[in-house]
Write the structure tokens for this entry.
Amino acid sequence: MSQTNPESLAERVKAIPGGEMLMMCFSCGTCTSKCMIQEKLEPNYNPRRLIREAVFNYKEEAFADETTWLCSACDLCYPACPQKIHISGVITVIKQLAVAEGKQTPYQTAKVDEATCVACGLCVSVCPYEAISLVEKKVAFRGLIPVASVDPGKCMACGMCSAACRSTSIRLTEDFNDQQLIEDLWTWLERKTI
Amino acid sequence: MTAKAKIALFQCRWCLFSPADQEWVDTQLPENIHLTKTPCTGKINPLYLLNAIQGGADGIMISGCLPEQCHFKTGNLAARRQLEEFNDFLHYIGYEKERVHFLWLDLQDRGIIQKELAAFEAELEAMGSTQHLATRVMRAEGGENA
Amino acid sequence: MVDAARQPLIEIKAFTDVEKVEGFVGNFKVTLREKAKYVRADRCNGCNACSLACPVEVPNYFEMNLSSRKAAYVPMSQSVPLIYTIDMDACIHCYKCVEACGSLQAIDFGMQDKVTEEDIGAIVVATGFSHFDPTPMMEYGYGHFPNVITAMEMERLNNSAGPTRGSLIRPSDNVKPKRLAIINCVGSRDKRYIQSCSNFCCMYAIKNALLLKQAIPDIDISIYYIDIRTPSKGYEEFYDRAREAGIKFVQGRPAEITEDPETHQLFIKSEDITLGRVVEHEYDMVMLNQAAIPQPDQNHMSSVLNVAQSPGGWFMEYHPKLRPMDSPTDGIFFAGACQGPKDIPASVAQGSAAAARASRILHSDTWQIEPTVAVVWPDRCVSGKGQACGICDRACPYGAINYEKGSAAEVVTAKCHGCGACVGECPHDAVTQLHFTDAQVLSQIRTLLAVEPEKKILAFRCQWCSYGGADLAGTSHFEYSANERGLRVMCSARMDADLIFEAFRLGAGAILYSGCHPQDCHYITGQVAGAKRASRLEKMFERMGMSPGRFRTEWISAAEGDKYARVINEMQATLDEIPMEELKSEIERLKPEMEKKLSKLNQIPGVEEALIQVDFIVNEMLGKAVSA
């Protein structure tokens, strides 16, 4: 049976801390209804389904599932789960396995402008996902200097780094980029007919 | 004051659990309120607030999630630290503290944001308009981005 | 109930607490406290005049506090016996009730609690169950949103004798609800609260939905569930009927109920698993189908009756399959949900079975018990010589030992269940257990370890769990090391330290000390005594410098055949890792230490003779084997 094969996705997930409780899920759907991603961001998001995919060894589906990449580990579902499964822990484990197999998040992540970054480390300390680190890097016109670097496997695009950055060197470039937000704000402020 | 108070609403996209409230904020906001949706209150850069004040906003409302309900673990906590501090600075330069309103919402809250916005608007109208920090020259009048 | 009250051989003692139960099967002495009702039972005719006259109103517990009652009251109009009670916590002593009662003179404010002791032959416990209070589940907002009610409150609202005379209204505005949701598994099947399934709530939800649908045909009812469980005869058909009647079933446990603060309308957000997406529906009213939990005073009753409790807190039966209505104490029986959540048919069946069991006792002059009882050798008991001891008394889970300093301890045979905890604990080897005497068990050990003892794994198994586990491993053909030698005793509490020392003295390679999981012990707390002793032994052997793993403690249930096989195989692997020469020298090195502990072994009556005989027989057999 697939469950007893140590190469199966379920066994691999269970072997990593955080994924132990995978098989305890009885598919009640509480996590999905507690989570707001399905409603606000991605209608195809479903932690319960991802757990089923892992249990039944649908590896490709699981790695390609939106749920794998969009869970931000807010842990609203954890205290709600009647089986006390740390669902975001399970999802994080699946994501780790996906990253280890070379998969990348299809969603946006924060980008560093290396031309202006001064490596002050504010973004490193503010990031809730420990996705940012300072690395020595050769930057055009600046030589070998330390700059911030974002790990796309960990970044959830919350934008806290961009709010903390004092030199506007790190930001979200697609949805919610600073320029667009401020532009919209100005369009409204300039309207006379309020 | 005849015109309605101008309110810049900064909202974290997760803080309204009920779909009806989100629907209202997305589509039925009155014209004097501008919604800026962010992935998280932690994304709200103090620069946004400054821009709004420079452009003549009478009040700023920031709505986000309660602690431990943040979609990004600690984003709301970072926002509290940063923005409440920044609010002290705004007060120092003459933008009254009451003009910046924080609204931290619980999952089970329903219909709160409409009420809070109405109450805030009334409060601002009572306080009157503030324009002395609206320093920026508008594009229509040959401002920088024109 | 009325029939029972009319039957001359049945006496109902209402408003009475059981304070103490002593004695044993057929001869219980039960202390009862009949609480003062302040109304004389021989005069009250149930006319209700006192209640009408009473000016005090307090919340009516029977109506789930949805209405009020007077300080002079009966819990419900169908109460049997129909005798009023005055609630002294609420009474303001205006004595209007005395006036109202008039010439009947039934009200007596001088009444006191009456404590009596009665001779009882058999006891049937039917204390029922209680309900989980969903207030801690903030997500459902019970106690916070007025229109979220519990199943019991619904029961009262929908009852023609209830506070609304049977018309269902929602609490916030007294309007008839048009849309009703029922949420199943509130608190049950939930590791945060009650882990188990409450057995009857699925059917209960369907029953309520159908009743409401009959009363209010245009009501829209949805039942949110994780699984619908309809396991008994006719139940699935009932479920069919509900669907036919138009009741909607939503598979998906709701995560959150939110409320419109103006209209008190409720919104349930749940994943509709069949659709695979999250849906939010609006309801006028939500009923939470709470978990069944043991009575709040179940722990107290368990200590009064001296019967064990299962993990969930329910009373523990003698055997879950074969004797579900018997308690482990002879003469005490269970009926209904005090032993575990069950529905009406199951409760009736169990009650009838318990009554039949009890009547067997009442109709016999003698009673057979298990023969494996403990016996004290009075001349060996130090208590008889004036020393303070009482270890056996403390070890006995049933209170079957009478200990008094100055006279030898005595076992009350009728109360003894034969676990052997006293035998295992007695430091002076003054107690023995029939059929498991030291001589008998030591003889077995000697026989099992007669040949190449250093290769053997001696497994002490308790009769009820680990022996069953080993049995299951055998019948399931789980392979485990052939060097295992099993030895059965009644309980891990009987596994005397002397027996372990003797086995190691004889050179046993490894010893498994196994019994039930703590909550499964057949003898209430026998396993606890055994576990304490095992951990003491483990530390002692570690100090002696014994290789780790040679003495192992494992709790294996009768259903864990695979675990039994795995443990034995692991022990074999540990043993294999120790080179034979090293093992032999370790055994030799530890031998004097073991002998020191066993210096008094041969003084136990019967042991020396038995061992001489065993040695003789074993040698004979081995001699034959060698010569043939």
User: Anything to note?
Assistant: The mean pLDDT of chain B is 88. Strands of chain B lie at 7-12, 33-38, 59-65, 100-105. Helices of chain B lie at 19-27, 46-54, 75-92, 112-127. Residues 84 and 90 of chain B are 10 Å apart (CA to CA).
